[in-house]
Amino acid sequence: MDPLKARLWFKFREPVNWAASIAVFAVLFFVLEWALPFWVAFGVALAASFCLHFFYLDHRAIRIKCPYGRCREIIETNTPWICGHKGCKNDNADEFPFIYKCEHCGNQPKAYKCHHCGELIFFTEDEQKTGYAECANYVLKAAVVKKREGHQEMMTNKREVIESKGLDVEIGKLDMRLKGINRTLNPPPPPQAEPKPRMPAPDDELAAFLRQTTGDEDAAEKQRKIVREKYKDDPAECEKQLRLIDEWVTSRLK
Ligand SMILES: [Zn+2]
Ligand SMILES: [Zn+2]
């Protein structure tokens, strides 16, 4: 059946089924009445049309054909489906097929994603591509495949990290070895000894000593003159001061 007519056919199916069942009853009753008693013919015709209606016509799924050239597969509209509006799962697809409406939220899907080729089969001419219905099993299988793919991607990422870190460790080891080789080939220069302080030459040392001694003696002589002048009336104190000056000059020579 043409998908664009499927919705309309679903609406008329119920009265058409009833009309067909009643017609079958009438014809059968009319025929049977010739050979059987009235009530028997009535009962048989009623039972036959009852079975026809409730066990066959009422359960007969509307079949639509995927319109895409490379697919052309038949899809039974009583396939359990997932509502594209709120994600409701419709298991009661005999009463609520995807060409009718969602049993839970009342949404009327405008398209069904073919579970053979994955293309959208539209039920209206506006060809709305959102909120379409999908086969429940197809969605579940797709979810499992997606989960498995996600796991594989995570494992691949982890393997790449391990590989990268392993390479870093190898690089570190090689760096250490390279440093060892460089140290062996180019040993660092031995530490240089502190230069010894240069000893002054004996002549210079003696000259410095004489300069100091002469200086000391000049200062002492100057001080002696001052002391003699200052203590000319006190010979004992004068003697004591002169002795102290001599002691100073002697201590400077040590
Ligand atoms: Zn829904
Ligand atoms: Zn298809």
Structural class: alpha+beta
Q: How much strand content do the residues show?
A: 5-15%
What is the general shape? rod-shaped
Termini separation comes to 135 Å
Largest β sheet strand count, sense and barrel closure = 5 strands, mixed
The Cα radius of gyration reads: 61 Å
H/E order of the elements? HHEEEEEEEHHH
Number of strands: 7
User: Mean pLDDT score, rounded?
Assistant: 88
Would you identify the regions where 5 or more consecutive residues have pLDDT less than 50?
Answer: none
**What percent of residues adopt helix (DSSP H or I)?**
55-70%
Describe the structure.
With about 250 residues, this protein is an alpha+beta fold. Among the domains are: about 1-60; about 210-254. Helix content is about 60%, strand content about 5%. The protein has helices at about 5-35, 40-55, 135-185, 200-230, 235-254, and strands at about 65, 75, 80, 90, 110-115, 120, 135. The strands form 2 sheets. Strands 4-3-7-5-6 form a 5-stranded mixed sheet. Helix 1 (about 5-35) runs antiparallel to helix 2 (about 40-55) and helix 4 packs antiparallel against helix 5 (about 235-254). It is rod-shaped. The mean pLDDT is about 90. The structure holds zinc ion (ZN) (2 copies).
